[in-house]
Write a structure and sequence with these properties.
Elements (H helix, E strand, L loop, with lengths): L24 E3 L10 E5 L5 E3 L10 E3 L2 E2 L23 H5 E5 L2 H10 L8 E4 L9 H5 L2 H10 L3 E6 L8 H8 L4 E6 L5 H7 L6 H13 L5 E7 L7 H14 L3 E6 L6 H12 L4 H7 L8 H18 L29
Parallel strand pairs: 2-6, 4-7, 7-8, 8-9, 9-10, 10-11
Antiparallel strand pairs: 1-2, 3-4, 5-6
Length: 342
């Protein structure tokens, strides 16, 4: 395994790029919330990542304190990134989490060096969740938030984790100095289905309460209702319930898109579907026959359905200004749904 080079007594030549000379530790915790988990603690010379290409996130700067995710969402688009570490995209992604224990220090060192391009904003949560349960023990995010604010770099966080509430005072303080974007990922409003497809996540109700807590703190909070699962969460009844509850929680914007099945996620999700909803498997195979995206006709149909429900609940597509603001008056902006993050 490539991570052997990060463990105790490893030789320097075995280390991963960007982590030369690092020493690490494999740690387990015998507590219910971490039983069956393995944490690969490493140090890194680099915390900042620049997304390559000209796609949806091309050119964006990101920080990932963790690799792998206890949330264990069967549809997670980031699963295949675990294979870069000689770990598998299925069970290893859910249960073997890499922890960059010095992420805040590495970030501070990078931002303190003169460089041709300094990031205006850094995104967290675009790969794996920075507020997964491990964050309650490792407490990496407070240092990351303080470092970004001190260097005048904007902060964008996407999470399913209710632990975000712990850091709201820090984020409110940071918002006085830099732009702060916060968004919760809440895709499933059927409790039984949610626990099946996202078994390691907080409940939908707990995440809605977190949206309300963010709003009560005076910060905007968007919601990514992604992915919409074909024939599972795309009914008008489900969407109407979702938008009603999001409006009640105070969400300041809602973005949706259909399920995206990249390699790694595709195999894991379809295996789950075959176990839990086998009658849908042939329909999915036809819908995703062309690749990772659902067929264009389905995407157009879903966009129209969401637009109708959005108008009903007067929830915007476009996020609010990033700085601290009072709760807004919602307006209808029937703009196209943004591309999927999942």
């Amino acid at each position: 395994m490539r991570w052997d080079g990060q463990l105790l007594d490893a030789t320097d030549g075995d280390a991963l790029p960007g982590m030369r000379g690092a020493r690490g530790l494999v740690r387990t915790f015998d507590t219910p919330e971490f039983r069956g988990m393995e944490f690969l603690e490493v140090t890194s010379r680099s915390a900042l990542n620049r997304v390559p290409g000209n796609g949806f996130m091309g050119g964006a700067w990101t920080v990932n304190p963790y690799r792998g995710c206890q949330h264990a969402c069967v549809y997670c688009f980031a699963r295949n990134t675990h294979t870069y570490l000689d770990l598998d995209a299925g069970r290893d992604f859910d249960s073997r989490v890499v922890v960059k224990t010095n992420v805040a220090e590495a970030l501070d060192a990078e931002l303190g060096r003169s460089r041709r391009e300094q990031p205006e904003r850094v995104m967290l949560g675009t790969n794996t969740d920075p507020y997964q349960r491990a964050e309650g023990r490792y407490r990496l995010m407070p240092g990351v938030i303080r470092t970004l604010a001190r260097h005048g770099v904007g902060i964008s966080i996407l999470t399913k984790g209710t632990l975000l509430r712990r850091d709201l005072p820090l984020l409110v303080e940071a918002a006085e100095r830099v732009p702060v974007d916060l968004a919760m990922s809440i895709a499933v409003f059927d409790d039984e289905l949610q626990q099946s497809v996202e078994p390691g996540t907080p409940t939908t109700a707990a995440r809605l309460a977190t949206v309300r807590a963010v709003r009560d703190a005076g910060l905007a909070c968007g919601v990514l209702m992604m992915p919409v699962l074909p024939w599972l969460t795309d009914s008008e009844e489900h969407l109407d319930t979702a938008f009603a509850r999001l409006a009640e929680a105070g969400a300041t914007s809602v973005n949706t898109s259909a399920l995206h099945l990249r390699p790694g996620a595709r195999e894991w999700y379809l295996a789950w579907l075959a176990r839990e909803h086998p009658h849908l498997l042939p329909r999915y195979e036809r819908l995703y026959a062309g690749g990772a995206n659902a067929g264009r006709d389905y995407q157009d149909w879903l966009r129209e359905r969401v637009r109708t429900v959005r108008r009903r609940h007067r929830l915007d597509v476009v996020p609010e200004p990033r700085r601290r603001t009072p709760p807004p008056t919602r307006v209808v902006e029937p703009e196209p749904v943004t591309p999927a993050l999942f």
